Amino acid sequence: MEAKQFGINDVVEMKKQHPCGTNSWKVIRMGADIRIKCLGCGHSIMIPRNEFTKKMKRVIQQGDTES
């Protein structure tokens, strides 16, 4: 299986929906843990990288890499 490619400031779609009603999240920090921010309500969470790759469905929009 191909490894999922994602980067900082990418907007990703998760498999499960957030309680606010959206499943679009923005990647705001990367490392051993990934911090993502809900684009619906602004809530941010930090989850381990391996758990994030299991729960991520696809990249909706690529982030800008210059900043």
List keywords for this structure.
globular; five-stranded antiparallel β-sheet; single chain; 67 residues
Detail the topology: elements first, then pairings.
Elements: E1 11-14, E2 24-29, E3 33-38, E4 44-48, H1 49-55, E5 56-61
Antiparallel strand pairs: 1-2, 1-5, 2-3, 3-4
Q: How would you sum up this structure in a few lines?
A:
The chain has 67 residues and is mostly beta strands.
State the end-to-end distance.
31 Å
**Helix tally?**
1
Query: Percent of residues in helical segments?
Result: 10-25%
How many whole angstroms does the radius of gyration measure? 11 Å
Instruction: Name the structural class.
Output: mainly beta
Please give the largest β-sheet.
Answer: 5 strands, antiparallel
> Judging from the principal axes of the Cα atoms, what is the shape?
globular
Q: Quick check: average pLDDT?
A: 89
Widest beta sheet: strand line-up: 4-3-2-1-5
- Which sequence of SSEs, written as H and E, runs from N to C? EEEEHE
Number of strands: 5
The tally of structural domains comes to 1
Question: Poorly predicted ranges (pLDDT <50, ≥5 residues)?
Answer: none
Percentage beta strand: 35-45%
Pfam family, one: DUF951
Organism: Sporosarcina jeotgali
Protein name: DUF951 domain-containing protein
